[in-house]
Specification:
Elements (H helix, E strand, L loop, with lengths): L3 E3 L11 E2 L6 E4 L12 H15 L22 H41 L2
Antiparallel strand pairs: 1-3, 2-3
Helix pairs in contact: 1-2
């Protein structure tokens, strides 16, 4: 399956990936690094940071799927570090949600323009 790779569980996993319905094979979407890259859209950087923070916290689910308050502390991570990463994840998720809202507003504007153009035909 293009764009997916085999999921390998880690000892820090506190939430899991989705499963393929027909084969029962555990799959995880392939993600690209989005922090600091010049090739990445600015709206995508916050969601990429969210994915990376979720990985650091041992959560296989990502961007806006599980609230930061529900992520369990990985075994071996200090409470202070865990608290700092959770606070950072809350800030990044808020920024990513704002970016997603801006993207949705942009799409809605484009649809309205297309509707007006099609109504003149």
């Amino acid at each position: 399956m293009l764009g997916y790779r085999q999921y390998v569980p880690t000892r820090f996993s506190s939430c899991g990936p989705h499963q393929s319905g027909s084969t029962g094979q555990v799959l995880e979407p392939l993600r690209w690094r989005t922090r600091g890259s010049q090739q990445v859209n600015k709206r995508d950087r916050a969601s990429g940071s969210s994915w990376e923070l979720c990985r650091a916290l041992g959560c296989q689910e990502g961007f806006l799927i599980r609230p930061a308050e529900l992520i369990r502390k990985p075994k071996g991570m200090h409470w202070r570090t865990f608290g700092q990463k959770i606070e950072q994840l809350k800030r990044v998720d808020a920024r990513a949600l704002e970016d997603a809202a801006a993207m949705l507003a942009s799409i809605e504007r484009g649809v309205k323009i297309a509707e007006v153009a099609l109504s003149h035909c």
